[in-house]
Design goal:
The structure is a single chain. The chain has 41 residues and is mainly alpha-helical. The chain has one domain. Helices cover 93% and strands 0% of the residues. The chain is built from 1 helix and no strands. The chain is rod-shaped.
Length: 41
Amino acid sequence: MEVNEARRLKQLEEENRQLKPMVAEQALDLRLMREVVSKRW
C-alpha cells in the first residue's frame, strides 16, 4: 500500500467513525416514526 492510499484509508476510516452514530440515530428515528404511524391508524 502506498503512502497516499494509507492516508486516504485513514481519512475514510475517520469519516466512517463520525457517520456511524448519525446513521444509527436516523435508523432509530425512522423506527420510532413507523411505530407511531402504525399505532395512529
